[in-house]
């Protein structure tokens, strides 16, 4: 499953370039999600919403750097 610091790449067939893409893709849950974690591309199945996740409006690079400094 997903963990704090994971970067979502796509949900189902929808690539995620920003928050608006994510909002549209969440309507298709449950679905397969592709994500990046610690340099690896992984996939998992997401159940229906709500996910219990928080969104970060920073770029993936900036968000991951900040998250790493906090942990």
Describe this protein's structure.
With 71 residues, the protein is an alpha+beta fold. It is 27% helix and 30% strand. The protein contains 2 helices and 4 strands; from the N terminus they run E-E-H-E-E-H. It has helices spanning 19-26, 60-70, and strands spanning 7-11, 14-15, 31-37, 40-46. Strands 2-1-3-4 form a 4-stranded antiparallel β-sheet, covered by helices on one side. Strand 3 (31-37) and strand 4 (40-46) form a beta hairpin. It is globular, with a radius of gyration of 12 Å. The two termini are 19 Å apart.
- List segments where confidence is low: pLDDT < 50 over at least 5 consecutive residues: none
Based on CA atoms alone, the radius of gyration comes out at: 12 Å
**Silhouette:** globular
The separation of the N and C termini measures 19 Å
Individual helix count: 2
The biggest beta sheet reads: 4 strands, antiparallel
Secondary structure: elements and pairs:
Elements (H helix, E strand, L loop, with lengths): L6 E5 L2 E2 L3 H8 L4 E7 L2 E7 L13 H11 L1
Antiparallel strand pairs: 1-2, 1-3, 3-4
């Amino acid at each position: 499953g997903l963990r704090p610091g994971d970067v979502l790449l796509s949900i189902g067939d929808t690539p995620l370039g920003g928050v608006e893409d994510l909002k549209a893709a969440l309507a298709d849950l449950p679905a397969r999600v592709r994500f990046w974690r610690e340099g690896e591309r992984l996939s998992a199945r997401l159940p229906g919403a709500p996910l219990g996740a928080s969104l970060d409006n920073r770029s993936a690079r900036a968000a991951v750097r900040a998250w790493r400094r906090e942990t």
